[in-house]
Amino acid sequence: MRRYLLPATFGTLALVYPLLTAGSAVYQRLGALVLLAAIGASAWNLVGGYAGQVSVGHTVFFGAGAYAAIAGYTHFGLPPIAGAPIGALVAVLIAALIGVPTLRLSGHYFSMATIAVAELIRVLVTNWEWVGGAQGISGPAVPRTFLDLSFTSALPYYYLFLAVLGVILFLTWRIEESRMGFYLRAIKDSERAARSLGVAAGRYKLYAYMLSAGLTAVAGSLYAIMFGFIDPESGFGILISVKMLIMAALGGAGLLFGPLVGALILVPLEEISNSLLGGRGAGLTFVVYGAIIVVIARFLPSGLLALFPGRTRHKPLKPDPRHAA
Amino acid sequence: MSSILLQVIVSGLLIGAVYALFSSGLTLIWGMMNVINFAHGDFVMLAMYTAFIVWTVFGGGPLAAVPLAALVLATVGVMSYFLLVRHIMKGPMLAQILGTFGLALLLRYSAFWYFGANFKTLPDNILGPPFVLGDIRVDAPRLLAGTVGLVVTLLLHLILTRTSIGSRMLAVSEDAMAAQLMGIRPERMQAVAWALAAGSTGIAGALIATFFYTSPTVGETLAIIAFVTVAFGGFGSVPGALVAGLLIGVIEALSAYLIGPVYKDVIVYALFVLVLWTRPQGLMGKA
Q1: What residue ranges of chain A have pLDDT lower than 50?
Q2: How far is B128 from chain A (nearest CA, A)?
Q3: What are the residues whose beta carbons fall under 8 Å from the beta carbon of B277, sequence distance 6 or more?
Q4: Domain that residue A222 falls in
Q5: Spatial distance between the Cα atoms of B257 and B12, rounded to a whole number of angstroms
Q6: Which helix (H) or strand (E) holds B132?
Q7: Exposure of A174 in the CB half-sphere (CA atoms within 13 A)
Q8: Hey, is the C-beta of B267 within 8 angstroms of any chain A C-beta?
Q9: In this predicted structure, what is the pLDDT of residue B284?
Q10: What is the CATH number of the domain that holds A130?
Q11: Taking CB atoms and an 8 Å limit, are B227 and A253 in contact across chains?
Q12: Which terminal CB of chain A, N or C, has fewer other CB atoms within 10 Å?
């Protein structure tokens, strides 16, 4: 039971957090942004953390979800939330298409290929007038029905994001404890060794990639719903991928709560430095970001949660009955 | 061949020689240490701002800016090696990517913060009027950049293959432990490699600044060009980078002319992805 104590405490804390903020809009918004970032980073964690395939191109899936939400509204009058399943579907298809050739690449080559695909798609979207080109497109200015999920308060978003994050973390936890989780970690440690022991490495990497892509698209849709506007930079910019990667790595890539811990540190940092430094803050925020990343890579290559190794152990699985002769 | 097409190819070759030069730096580090410097494009960016400062503060042209940028960047390279790369080299791959990516963000947004987001350009006529040869007209800065790019790339190749320090670097890249037993200090050689790689990147950057806009994010585009060049030319190979750089310069110039300037990046990125997909290790040597 002890292993559920900490997650349960944090879960309760997350549920009552808005009450503790005493209705402060700033803190409610901050909470929502932390959860949103954690959703994206947790989605990335499935393939980047557990399977060790460091994608720097997840912005493609984020953008697919974000653009699906807004373009569905602009062209077909759909409520933006309909973009989540559509975007997820599109993202999974893209992931399958680019994943098959790209996942064969190892190490740095995989990361570079994902960057190139992402940049390629960003340039194409920037020149695609149907989705607003370089200007971007906006969602409903005034909510037509409740389904548009357009609220002035951040509170509904907070709980929406909390629910989605809960689902993603539960999914990740189930995978972590399942055979697939073991396969992914084996692939991360040594793909060759995993293959030689009969793990269908290519297939499991692809599954993880597609699942991760779909969930990242959901994060993109949620972003678009909350902000009501999307352009090539906020949908397909390279920094979106980089942020997912950094949050997961700061907390601990390949650990269930790693991305959430990373988001809990970096998002408030970003918001504070933005509000303190005003217009010029954007530049300085990323200077701080860069410095933090360099320090993590140098001194804490496995992330903050690696300081508590007790939390990272997994209980062994029973042998697969199919192999028990 | 129409003269416009010839003009396009010539300017492609000239820019290609500069691509070759700064890609040589990336391929050298990659080949020697199996580390990808994701901050490589931002090294070019730093050199471009160095050239810009040399012009605005001291009124100096490329003749002053090129050696100075080489010196500044060689220092930056050696510092990056000793403070960061040396430590993350043996760590997990995520830490390697993070480390150099963090460095990239640090450099890029320091420039953004200090210089602002606006594009900076050096005056067009910094080197005098364009050269005209028959139907072909070449701007002086591009001609200088292409020529120097070609010469320095060849020089780098000679240093790596014909000098004692080059042989020692090769020994370290093949087997650091064995090299150490032969009395070569691997760390010193790797630091020399960073100095050479970043220094030649500095030369390239100072040359590019004479005809290209300088902005904090210019390194993003240039880094991808360097990746493509290295992927084409072969992992660790300076002559490969030279051939590939020239090729990519021409492909880029031709697609800008034939299809449209907006799509030149698309063509280059698509080519890159295709090379990675179809010849994942083939064109590049070992993975």
Answers
A1: 312, 324-325
A2: 35
A3: A101, A102, A113
A4: 2-312
A5: 11
A6: strand B131-133
A7: 5
A8: no
A9: 46
A10: 1.10.3470
A11: no
A12: C
H helices of chain B, where?
3-33, 40-58, 62-80, 86-88, 93-115, 140-162, 164-174, 176-181, 186-208, 218-233, 238-258, 264-278
**A:B CB pairs within 8 Å:** 143
Domain assignment of residue A322, yes or no: no
Q: What is the CA radius of gyration of chain B?
A: 19
pLDDT band at B158 (very low <50, low <70, confident <90, very high): very high
CB contact (8 A) between residue B280 and residue A105: yes
Collect all residues of chain A within an 8 Å Cβ-Cβ radius of residue B84: 294, 297-298
Residue A257 forms part of a structural domain: yes
Inter-residue contact B197 to B77 (CB < 8 Å): yes
Regarding predicted confidence, which is higher, A112 or B71? B71
What CA–CA distance (Å, rounded) separates A90 from A101? Answer: 18
Rg (CA), chain A: 20
To the nearest whole Å, the CA of B118 is away from the closest chain A CA by 13
The residues near B246 (Cβ < 8 Å, ≥ 6 apart) are B12, B13, B16, B17, B19, B20
- For B172-205, write each residue's pLDDT tens digit: 888 888 888 988 998 999 999 999 999 999 999 9
Distance (Å) from the alpha carbon of B12 to chain A's nearest alpha carbon: 21
Cβ–Cβ below 8 Å for A290 and B92: no
Chain B, 86 to 115: residues with Cβ < 8 Å from chain A are 87-88, 91-99, 101-110, 112-113
More reliable by pLDDT, A139 or B16: B16
Contacts of B108 in chain A (CB under 8 A): 286, 290
Distance (Å, whole) CA A3 – CA A314: 11
How many separate domains does chain A show?
A: 1
Q: Domains (ranges, CATH) in chain B?
A: 3-278 (1.10.3470)
Q: Of B98, B105, B228, which is closest to A296 when you measure between CB atoms?
A: B98
Q: Which residue has the tokens 């042998």?
A: A319
Residue type present at position A49: G
Q: Mind telling me how many Å the CA of A85 is from chain B's nearest CA?
A: 28
Residue B220 sits at the chain A interface (C-beta within 8 Å): yes
Beta carbons of B210 and B127 less than 8 angstroms apart = yes
How far apart are the C-alpha atoms of A12 and A83, rounded to whole Å?
30
SS3 content of chain B, % helix, strand, coil (to 5): 75, 5, 20
Helix (H) or strand (E) holding B137: strand B136-138
Bridge partners of residue B195, in order along the sequence = none
Q: Which of A266, A234, A293, A264 is nearest to A62 (CA)?
A: A234
A43 closest CA partner among A93, A88, A99, A105: A88
